[in-house]
C-alpha cells in the first residue's frame, strides 16, 4: 500500500519523507542512539551475532532522531525544574500564611481603656482614679477594675459580681449591701471600708487588707482569705475559706 505524505510536515525535513512503509519519521519513538553502547555487555554465550540486523538508514534520519531525543530531554528537564520551582514557592507561601495565622491567633485582644466611659457591665476601668465617686447602685458586674482607686467612693448597693478588683484601692469606701460575689480582690486595699451586709460569696480576698473594715452582716460563704489581714489585725492562715483561721 502506498503511503500518503503530509507535505506540511515533510517540507521541514526534505529527503526524510518516509522512514519505512510502516510510518513516518516523526512517529518514530526511537532515540537515535546505539543502545549497544549504553547497555551492560552480556556474557559471551548470551551475545548475539556480530552482524547488524537493522536495515541501513540515512544519516539524516539518525541525526534527526538524536536531535529530537535531545530536545525531548531538555523539555522534560525544564518541566521538572519549573514544577520544583512552583512547589517551592507554594511551600513558602503556605509557611507565611500559617505564621501570620499563628501570630493573629496568639496575639492578645487589645481592649480599649477609657476612664471616662459610662459605668456598665464589663467596662474597662483598670488603673483609673475614681476616688470619691458616687457609683451607688450601678452595675459593674464583670468589669475590669484592676489597680483602680475607689478610696472614699460611694459604692452602696453596687454590683461588682465577677469583677476584677485585684490591687484596687477601696479604703474607706462605702460598700454596704454591695454584691461582690465571685469578684477577684487579691491584694485589694479595703482598710476601714464599710462592707456591712455585703455579699462576698466565693470572692477571692487573698492577701487583701481588711484592717478596721466593717463586716457586720456580710455574707462570706466560700470566700478565700489566704494571708488576708482581718479587721482585728490577724493574718488569716493559708487555706482559710469562709472565715479567718
From TrEMBL:
Keywords: Membrane, Transmembrane, Transmembrane helix. It comes from the Bacteria. Signal peptide: none annotated. Pfam families: Pentapeptide. Gene3D superfamilies: E3 ubiquitin-protein ligase SopA. InterPro entries: 5peptide_repeat (IPR001646), Pentapeptide-BTB/POZ_domain (IPR051082). The chain crosses the membrane at residues 88-109. This is Pentapeptide repeat-containing protein. It comes from Nitrosococcus oceani C-27.
Amino acid at each position: 500500500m502506498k503511503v500518503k505524505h503530509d507535505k506540511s510536515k515533510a517540507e521541514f525535513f526534505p529527503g526524510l519523507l518516509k522512514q519505512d512503509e510502516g510510518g513516518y519519521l516523526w512517529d518514530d519513538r526511537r532515540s537515535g542512539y546505539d543502545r549497544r553502547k549504553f547497555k551492560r555487555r552480556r556474557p559471551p554465550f548470551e551475545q548475539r551475532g556480530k552482524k547488524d540486523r537493522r536495515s541501513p538508514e540515512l544519516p539524516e534520519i539518525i541525526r534527526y532522531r538524536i536531535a529530537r531525543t535531545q530536545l525531548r530531554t531538555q523539555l522534560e528537564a525544564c518541566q521538572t525544574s519549573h514544577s520544583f520551582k512552583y512547589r517551592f514557592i507554594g511551600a513558602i507561601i503556605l509557611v507565611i500564611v500559617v505564621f501570620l495565622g499563628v501570630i493573629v491567633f496568639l496575639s492578645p485582644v487589645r481592649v480599649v481603656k477609657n476612664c471616662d466611659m459610662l459605668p456598665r457591665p464589663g467596662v474597662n476601668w483598670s488603673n483609673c482614679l475614681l476616688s470619691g465617686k458616687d457609683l451607688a447602685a450601678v452595675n459593674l458586674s464583670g468589669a475590669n477594675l484592676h489597680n483602680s482607686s475607689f478610696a472614699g467612693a460611694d459604692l452602696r448597693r453596687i454590683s461588682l459580681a465577677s469583677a476584677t478588683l485585684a490591687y484596687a484601692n477601696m479604703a474607706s469606701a462605702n460598700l454596704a449591701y454591695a454584691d461582690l460575689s465571685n469578684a477577684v480582690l487579691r491584694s485589694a486595699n479595703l482598710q476601714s471600708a464599710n462592707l456591712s451586709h455585703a455579699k462576698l460569696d466565693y470572692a477571692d480576698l487573698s492577701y487583701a487588707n481588711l484592717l478596721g473594715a466593717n463586716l457586720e452582716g456580710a455574707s462570706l460563704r466560700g470566700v478565700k482569705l489566704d494571708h488576708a489581714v482581718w479587721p482585728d489585725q490577724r493574718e488569716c492562715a493559708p487555706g482559710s475559706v469562709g472565715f479567718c483561721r
